[in-house]
Amino acid sequence: MNSFISRPFTRLFFTSALLCIPFITHADDCAPKKIDVWVKASFALSGDTVIIQNKQYRLIGVEAPQIEKKQKFYTNGQPLAKQSQKKLNTILANHNLRVGVEYDQKRSDEFYRTYVHLYVKEGNKIINLQKLMLESGLALAQSEPPNNLHQKCYYQAEKTARQNKIALWSLVEKRPDLNYPIAPSSNITTDDEGYHIFKGKIVKVDKSSNNYILNMDTTGIRIRKADWEHFDYDQLEALEGKVIEARGYGFLFQGAMFVKIHSPYAIDRLNPVNQ
């Protein structure tokens, strides 16, 4: 049958295929499902927040170190926060501040920041900006349904940085006293509120009418009823007696640290990237 295909048609088909390459070379979990709009950014407010047209745009799936705030409500700073902000500003500057915006299921948070996945162009390629930040080791992967696009991409990018002991991941060995990004449950203090990866042995798994309960020695992990659909309780029960890493926003309540999680990606032993 190939003998009936003329050479001009073959050349035309091949040329057309080449023109489509920018749209298919990233046909993986890091590639956009759809770029909603290309815009010009202004600057990075932090390692996970960008100012675009005088509004705050929050990167989905990424949690950067917290910059210290000395305003009305004091916020502790976390290691390498300024370096993370600088890295994001450098990425933006190297791409003429032009970014592609992809929305997910939930458009904004309670602070009226717009949730987005951002992209930059490098020649004919469209590169996931979140992936660049995570591979730099200056941000942590984060999960919060229903914004579930590119989760495998983001956790794999973080895993690469961790394996290479880059930036934040070098602190795990060089400065374990910082309790960041990994906070051992047995060593946490009142300074360890905020987003961390809490590590410890699960001593109890239970459930109440409102929560699935996973307790470490000093850290309580809670999965609210609204998120139960994302979890298999049998898998959670199997974690009892095992050392796990669970990531989320730690907060103090009655002398104990608690963290709410919303997705199996937040627990290392349940995360598909680690299977």
Structure, explained:
Keywords: Endonuclease, Hydrolase, Nuclease, Signal. Residues 45-171 form the TNase-like domain. The structure is a single chain. The chain has 275 residues and is of the alpha+beta class. The chain folds into two domains: 37-163, OB fold (Dihydrolipoamide Acetyltransferase, E2P), CATH 2.40.50; 179-274, Nucleic acid-binding proteins (OB fold (Dihydrolipoamide Acetyltransferase, E2P)), CATH 2.40.50. The chain has helices spanning 7-24, 81-94, 129-135, 151-163, 168-174, 233-237; strands at residues 37-40, 43-46, 49-52, 55-59, 62-63, 98-102, 114-122, 125-128, 140-141, 182-184, 194-201, 204-207, 211-215, 219-224, 243-253, 256-260. Strands 1, 2, 3, 4, 6, 7 and 8 form a seven-stranded mixed β-sheet that branches. It is globular, with a radius of gyration of 21 Å. Residues 1-27 have low confidence and may be disordered.
